[in-house]
Amino acid sequence: MGGDHGPCVTVPSAVEYLRHDHSAHIILVGKPEVITKELDALKVTPNSRLTLYPASEIVGMDEHPAFALRNKKDSSMRVALNLVKKGEAQACISAGNTGALLATSRFVLKTISGIDRPALAVVLPTISGHTYVLDLGANINCTAEHLFQFGIMGATLVSSVENKPNPSIGLLNIGEEDIKGNDVVKQAAELFRNSNLNFYGNIEGDDIYRGTTNVVVCDGFVGNVALKTSEGLAQMLASYLREEFKRSLFSKLAGLVSLPVINAFRRRVDHRRYNGASLLGLRGTVIKSHGSADSFAFHCAIKRAVDEIRGDTLHRLIEHIEVLRHNIEHNVTQPASAK
Amino acid sequence: MGGDHGPCVTVPSAVEYLRHDHSAHIILVGKPEVITKELDALKVTPNSRLTLYPASEIVGMDEHPAFALRNKKDSSMRVALNLVKKGEAQACISAGNTGALLATSRFVLKTISGIDRPALAVVLPTISGHTYVLDLGANINCTAEHLFQFGIMGATLVSSVENKPNPSIGLLNIGEEDIKGNDVVKQAAELFRNSNLNFYGNIEGDDIYRGTTNVVVCDGFVGNVALKTSEGLAQMLASYLREEFKRSLFSKLAGLVSLPVINAFRRRVDHRRYNGASLLGLRGTVIKSHGSADSFAFHCAIKRAVDEIRGDTLHRLIEHIEVLRHNIEHNVTQPASAK
Question: Which molecular-function annotations from GO does this UniProt entry contain (chains A, B) (predicted)?
Fold first, then answer.
C-alpha cells in the first residue's frame, strides 16, 4: 500500500514479475478493495501464485515510526512482516515509510543473535560492475563493532546472491593510511584486520564507483550523505547535458543523431535498476523499495528479495556469525570467510 | 615547490596569471635554481610584480605533517606562510601536502580569536550556479560549536568574495526534519537557529548540487566523503559516456557530430575551474590547490586567493566574529548578518 504511488505501481509490478518468474509466489497485502480494483484493471484474478491478504490500515509516508509501531497494528507493512515471522512468506517488500519499516521489522522479526542493529545495504554501479554499500541510513551513531557487523552482513550478502566466495570489504574513510579517520573507523579497521574476513583496508569516496571492493562499509550518516550527494550530482549532470544539446539548432541536430547513444547511456545508469535496499541483520528477509519507484523499479526490488531467498542469505548469515563467534571463543585462526 | 608536478606547473601558471591581472604581485617561494630554470624556459625574468624568495627545503607529498612541522623550517611552504605572517604577502597558495599545510599554517599564523579550528572550504557547481561547502577534511571530530563556526566562516566568505549579503546556510543532514541526525548536528542546528545568521535548516546530500543554499556546513569526514564520492561518480559517468560513443561505427559518427556539444558540456563541468580550497579561520589567507592541478587549475587557485584579498574576507571574518561575540555577551538580538 505504501510508496508515493501505492498499489497502482506495486500491484501491476507484482503481476508483471510473476510473468517472468514462474516459480515465485506473491502475496499482496493491503486493503482488498483497492488491490482488487487494480487487479481488475489488469484483468487478473488471484490464483495459486498471486494471493491477497487483507490489512485494514496504511502507514503514512510522513508518519512518525514510533506512532506507526504503537497504533497501526493492522497496517499492510505490519501484517506483511507478521507473515514473514510466521513463515507464511519468505520476504517482505515495501515502498513505504522507511523509518516505520525499520522500527516495525525490528520489533516484529528481531535481530539475528550476534547482530546489534539491522543495516540498509544497496547495490551501486561501478566502472566495471557493481558494489554493495552499507549502512545507508538505518544507523546514525555507530560503534566500531557495528561497522564490523556491517562488514560481515555485506560480505555474506554478496557471497550468497552473487555466488562470489570471500568478497573484499573496504572501510570508507578519508584516506588510505591506517592513521586516517576518526576513532570509530580506526577501531573498526583493527577489528577487520584481526578477523579472517577479506578486508581490503581503508578506501575513499571515489573508490565506491571505482569498484575497488565488493563491499563498502560506513556508518549510516556518511552512507546516506554519499548516496544522496550522488543522486544530486547525477541530476545536475543530466540537466547540463540536456541544456547543451538544446543550446542551438546545430546542437539539437547533434542530439537527434546521438539519441540512440544517449539512450543506451541512460539505460546503463538507470538508477531504477538498483532499486531495493536489503535490510540485513533481521530474522527475516526485508527489502525497502524507493518510495518513488515506478513499476520497473519495484520489479527490481522484488527480484532482489527473490535473489536473497534463493541465495539463502539469511541462513548463511546466521551460520557465518556462529562460525565467527565460535572462532573468537575458541581462539581459532582458520579462515572464517563468507561461504 | 609542491604538488604532483611542482614548479613546472606553478611557475608558468603564475607568469600567465600576471598577464591577466595587472595589479597583482606574485612571490615565487622555493629553490632559486629550480624556479629560475622554469622562468628561463618561459623567457621571463623576475620583475617588480614577479619576485623570487629563496627556500631551501621541500615538504614531500607523503611526509608526515608533524615531521614537516618539526624538521622543515626552511621549506617553501613554511617560508611562504612566514611571509604572510610578516605582512610581506597577503596570501599563501600551495599545491603541496595538505596535512602539512594545515599543521604549518595553524602553527605559523594561528587561528582567529573565536575560531577553534580552521576549515577547508571549496566551491562546487550547482544546477543554477555554485555553492560553498565546508569542512572538506581539515576537521574529523567536530562539535556542534565547530559546525556553527564553519557556518560563520562560510557565510563571511560568500558575502565577501561574491558580494552577496546574508548568504543562506544549510546544515548537511540525513533528512530535513529537526529530529533527524546525530546529536552534534541537532545541537549545531539549535545554535544556528538561535543566531541571526540566515539559517535555511537541515539539507540533504542532493541539495549540494541543487544549490539549495549558498553555504553547506558539515564535518570534515562527511564533507570529504561527499566530495570524493562525487569525483568517483563523475569519472564513472564520463567513462560510460565515452564507451557508449565508441560502441559502434554509428555511435562513433554520432560522437563526431556531437563533439562541440560534448566539449561545451565538459568545459562546464571542468573540475579545474573549481580548484583552490580556502583554509578559513587563520590570521592570514591560505589557499590549497589540488596536488594534481595543471597550469589552468593552479591559475584558478591564484584567482581565488586574489578574490579573498580584494573581498577583504579575512578582516570581515574577524569583524563578523567580534559582532557575534558582542551580541552574545550583551544579549543583543539585532541581526548580525554576514556583511
Answer: phosphate:acyl-[acyl carrier protein] acyltransferase activity
